């Protein structure tokens, strides 16, 4: 761990730099697969599934029989846990519903805003060692509340042509309308263009490796929206001597185990705490199954001492952490003033894991400084806001003249004329 | 105008195709200018302003003296019109404010969502023949309501190194914090990287030509967000024999005058109306100053007859128009059921021009079918949603077990451990 004391403000951006990766080299692969899927449809999907996942599938869609089989394989204990999480995620996202917002801006001019669901969405769930069924909950639950009528889920099959049972269980529980055993670039390309088996969708959500990330970026060039740009996960904790060093260490490590490029940062006004957390990390690291990964990630990480809360806040706001844990005496200072963070965890009994799984908040959050300009996934991510207006004869008389003058000043005579004709008909 | 009767559903996508343009050839120019601005800052800005705008500027920032001068040049009539528009835009966007949304998802688990402003935003306002001061209102007014603390506006100078007075008047009126005489690719690059004169921003808004559009796309690769992907403006009207042909024609033409690539479509259940609108277009076209542009745009446009409202709605939803005017007897059918549209205008006295200027709704809207997956600019475009959670000892006891089970099932032991340590401390 790197300990840094009282860094000068002009060194912050260097200290807070994220581990970067270049993606130029994989762009050409992604483009090629997109072209082939666009042209050949399922034939290309079959080919790349065979190459990348090592399995030859006759059909991609998961059957009702497979779902039943999966349901039997998931332990009752895990089912209950998933149901609790689902219930909390539902509650938190359901209260985000907004009703029609309406106002008469001028007498006779009625304007309103309504949110309507994005009709067709695609969810990407990675396969591999960690089956992210929790991400299924985080995406499918709000999609359902929003009222999206087509929810397609793609996840890569294993060597035996199967998807992890917990993923299937969660997908079925949360109302996914079609589950497809397709992964990687070919899944994203398929949902972008549509194939015989894969419906074309309007927006794609979900995490993935570098290939999936680049594929999602490319998808946006073909009219598909995506949830947000992706990057390695990150956690910043601000803590003082009211914090419990063992808890802080466990939170830092829970982030560090995600990947060797994960970033964890502790900012503290207490040098003692920094030293104690460092010791705790050593102790806890030893017993972790993913020790190798976590160790590498902690090597990139930083323990930063600053003089006071005000400096700490400024530094944190410049960083814009995805996850931000506050364990300080004056927690309100940070809660009220933080400008840039994805999700904020407050107090000694609020580990990041809670938000990752079961408290109800969404875990799909902006990384890489995108907390400055992007929201985490929320109910609105599955809707679009539309505006409506209805103007009466009285209304057009009230604002018509202003429109004519402005249209004329912008040199748009036909815009003016659309109002003039109406005003004249009312004379 | 192309008249099409009862098109078969499998021909819709061909009929509704937007005029497309390829941008490959200008990408390299855009990339080059980005590189140079990143490396050389103001020196590059100066160079390209001289090349593209034909003016050599000593400084880019508009001074207080220039703003006063501009204020004197704008007629009182136009000032009043702008003030009325501003007041309506303010009212409509102010009611979009949402308060903190809070819920206790499980006893002891408090979660809430708050929207906080994007701190630094950039507005791009094109120059040229049509000075889009109305767009200044549409972007700066909600930015101010959202609480963005840095609002930078870039607009190209004319040959005399000036920005149109109405743009300066509107920018000053709406609380823009810095106005810069910089246009085109170099302006977008400058706001992306920051230079000596241009602040780096987190999100860029506003329309522009093809070069600006490609530049905004490129900006997203450097961590900047943009309002939405841009395309030529478009209008679809659904009308039956309760509509006034002259009004419909004037609305179609107001869209057509935007550019030769604008698209206007009329869908109707009345062949008579279609014929009458066609005649009206001929008549009105003749007297328009932008006749040449409007004529070319109408040549690409379509008058489509369909048997009934149900078919009309399906076709419109597949198109997803930016602007959608409803002039039919049963307007509620369309209002309640339209799934994909940017902004909807209802009834004979609600021309699109009203929303373009003064009714209060925003005129920055998704084109090119993006109404299927993007919102028009609204108050939320200037904020990001952040989540917060605070869990009590009781709360972690209530959900801790579920988190442990799920983390274990995903193979993330350190995530589990962060909860286990806390649960054990409470035994």
Automatic annotation (TrEMBL), chains A, B:
Q: How is the cofactor bound?
A: Binds 1 zinc ion per subunit.
The UniProt annotation places substrate binding at 233, 255, 258, 323, 356, 410, 415
The organism is Flavobacterium agrisoli
InterPro entries (alphabetical): Ald_DH/histidinol_DH, Histidinol_DH_CS, Histidinol_DH_monofunct, Hstdl_DH
Alphabetized UniProt keyword annotations: Amino-acid biosynthesis, Histidine biosynthesis, Metal-binding, NAD, Oxidoreductase, Zinc
UniProt lists the gene as hisD
Q: What is this protein called?
A: Histidinol dehydrogenase
The active site annotation covers 322-323
- Pathway per the UniProt entry: Amino-acid biosynthesis; L-histidine biosynthesis; L-histidine from 5-phospho-alpha-D-ribose 1-diphosphate: step 9/9
> Which amino acids does the record list as binding Zn(2+)?
255, 258, 356, 415
Checking Gene3D superfamilies in the record gives:
1.20.5.1300, Nitrogenase molybdenum iron protein domain (3.40.50.1980)
């Amino acid at each position: 761990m790197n300990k840094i004391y009282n860094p000068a403000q002009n060194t912050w951006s260097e200290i807070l730099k994220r581990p970067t990766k270049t993606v130029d080299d994989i762009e050409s692969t992604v483009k090629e697969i997109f072209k082939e899927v666009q042209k050949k449809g399922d034939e290309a999907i079959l080919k790349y599934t065979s190459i990348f996942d090592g399995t030859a599938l006759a059909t991609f869609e998961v059957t009702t029989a497979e779902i039943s089989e999966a349901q039997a394989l998931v332990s009752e204990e895990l089912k209950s846990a998933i149901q609790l999480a689902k219930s909390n995620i539902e509650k938190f996202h359901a209260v985000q519903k907004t009703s029609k917002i309406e106002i008469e801006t001028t007498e006779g001019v009625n304007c309103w805003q309504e949110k309507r669901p994005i009709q067709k969405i695609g969810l990407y769930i990675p396969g591999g060692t960690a089956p992210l069924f929790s991400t299924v909950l985080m995406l499918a639950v709000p999609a359902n509340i929003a009222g999206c009528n087509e929810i397609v889920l793609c996840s890569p099959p294993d060597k035996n042509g199967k998807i992890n049972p917990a993923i299937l269980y969660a997908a079925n529980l949360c109302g996914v309308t079609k589950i497809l055993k397709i992964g990687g670039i070919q899944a994203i390309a398929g949902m972008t263009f549509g194939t015989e088996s894969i419906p074309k969708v309007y927006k794609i959500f979900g995490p993935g490796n570098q290939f999936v990330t680049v594929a999602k970026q490319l998808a946006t060039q073909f009219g598909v929206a995506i949830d947000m740009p992706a990057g390695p996960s990150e956690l910043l904790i601000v803590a003082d001597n009211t914090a419990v060093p063992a808890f802080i260490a466990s939170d830092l490590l829970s982030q560090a185990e995600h990947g060797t490029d994960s970033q964890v940062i502790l900012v503290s006004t207490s040098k003692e705490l920094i030293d104690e957390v460092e010791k705790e990390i050593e102790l806890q690291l030893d017993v972790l199954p993913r020790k190798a990964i976590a160790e590498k990630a902690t090597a990139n990480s930083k323990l930063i001492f600053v003089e006071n809360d005000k400096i700490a806040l400024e530094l944190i706001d410049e960083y814009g952490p995805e996850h931000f844990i506050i364990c300080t005496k004056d927690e309100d200072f940070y809660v009220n003033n933080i400008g840039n963070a994805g999700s904020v965890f407050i107090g000694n009994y609020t580990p990041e894991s809670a938000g990752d799984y079961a408290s109800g908040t969404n875990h799909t959050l902006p990384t890489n400084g995108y907390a400055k300009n992007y929201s985490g996934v929320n109910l609105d991510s599955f809707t679009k806001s539309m505006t409506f207006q209805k103007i009466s004869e009285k209304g057009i008389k009230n604002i018509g003249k202003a429109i004519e003058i402005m249209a004329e000043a912008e040199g748009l005579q036909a815009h003016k004329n659309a109002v003039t004709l109406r005003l004249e008909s009312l004379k």
